[in-house]
Structures are given as structure tokens and as C-alpha cells.
Amino acid sequence: MTDLVIRALDASDAHLFDTLPDPLDAREGHRRTRHRPDWKRVALRDGTVVARAAWWGGPDDTEPVTVNWFDVAEGEEEAGAELLRTAPWQVELELNPPGTWREDAAVRTATEARYAAARAAGYELLVERFLYRWTPECGLPERPGRLDFRPEADDAVFFDALRRIHSATLDAHALMDIAEGGLDRAAQSELDFFHWCPSPREWWQLAYTSRGELAGIHIPAHNPSGPCVGFIGVLPEHRGRGYAYDLLAECTHFLAERGAEFVSAATDRGNHPMAANFAKAGYPVVRERINFRPATVAR
Description:
There is one protein chain. This protein is of the alpha+beta class. It has 2 domains: about 120 residues, 3-Layer(aba) Sandwich (Aminopeptidase), CATH 3.40.630; about 150 residues, 3-Layer(aba) Sandwich (Aminopeptidase). About 30% of the residues lie in helices and about 30% in strands. The strands form 2 sheets. An 8-stranded mixed sheet has the order 1-2-3-4-5-12-6-11. A hairpin with a 5-residue loop joins strand 8 and strand 9. The longest helix has 25 residues. The two termini are about 35 Å apart. About 40% of the residues are buried.
């Protein structure tokens, strides 16, 4: 087998990225994603691309925040691993297969090959997630009318609510933050994400019961790819009443009323209560996401 050549791309040779087959239909999943040519890398053997990866970040980010497109040719898992190992950015890796990938033998094989390459590069599985996409054809979810939604200008109020929400959470990223830096870190990570989103700060909302008790928060947002459910969270003492659905319904209406033609969302596969709320609100699963942590930060 001939030697492997790893190349970073630029605007002049970015076309090389498109020469590898796309069995996970990543191109369709990234129709609204803008990848920078200089954040793309390929592995070549005899001049043929056998692995590729695209790193991604927001328009104002100076460094990528994730690898969200990663492919290997059949039998080239080690080439893919070397591509990841030698990259200048060691950040989370995402695989985004179609939602039916477990039932389709060819797509499952392709997904598992990329999984094997990531593991060979030292990446560790963090979580598997459902990716949702609501459109007007799904119908607006009914608003139960049980909660009073209000904006709040003070970040400290949201910080305190996030600490309480994450004191009992099923979210894998929040649990990782808690393990590494406690509840303060988990709450601050959420706030940093909310501020990173280009949507207005005024959209953040608190939700109160009829008795005036804070029950939860919801963050309607736009990420760089469009409108999304930024966050849904119910305080522990108010769980068991179905309020997460109320928050999701309000978030969906909020974005639709501001012209959203679709709303993206995600939740961990293991978060069965939230997955049930997305199903109830009419959000179909369009893809799944497999998140890996790089060796440089994995425990």
C-alpha cells in the first residue's frame, strides 16, 4: 500500500473534498452549513482522496468548535484516524447519519467504519442524539396555557435557573461539564452558547406557574444555520407535570411567529422524557448525531 499524504485545503483545491462518495448523505444535512476551505483536510493515496474532514465554527470564531463532516473510503479507517490525529484542532467530532441508519445495512456499515476510525484516532463516544426538524407542515403544537412566559434582562437569573436545572440532568454534555467543573461550569457553558447564537438576547424567556413560581426556561434561538430550540429546561421541583412540552410548544410558536420556515432541535437518545415531548409536539427525527470527545480532553 502506498504512503498516505495528508493535505490541508484552500480555495484553489477545495474541490478535492467533493471527490469522495457520500453514503451518509452529509451534503444534504449540511445544505445550510458554511464550511471554510482552510478548515478542510483530506488524506490521499496515489492522488485519490480516501478520507476527508471538515471543521466548523461560527462566522466570528477564530478556531473551529467541532468536526461535523468526516468520511473514510472503504477499508481506509486508519487513513481517517491519521487525518484526525494530525489535525491542528482537537475538538469534538460529530457523525450525522440518517435517522434510519441502523436499519439500512449499507449506511450502517459506513457509519460503523467512521466510528472505528474515530476510535482509532483516540476519540471516545460521548453521546448519541436525535436531530429534529419542525416545519409548518408538521402543524403548530397546542399551547396548554398553563405557564406565564416573561423575558428577563439579568443573566444572573438564568444562571441560577440553569444551575438548578442541571442539578438533576440527563444531558451528556451538561454531565461532562459538571464532572469537570461543577454546576457553575455547566450553567456558564449554556450561557456562553446562548450568547454565541446570533439571535437577540431579548428572546430568552422564563416560565412561571399560576402561583408565580419559576418553573423553567426556554431559549428560542438562531444558530448560524437557522432557527432552533436553543434550550428547554424545567426546574427539578416542577418536573412530572409535563411542563417541558409547554416550554417546547411556546418556543416553537415564538419562532414561527417571527417567520421561521423550520426549527431545528436535538436531544440525547437516552433522554426519553424529552424525546417523548418532541414527538408529542410534532417534531420528526431527521437525523441522528454521534458525538465523540477527542483524546486530548477525554478522561
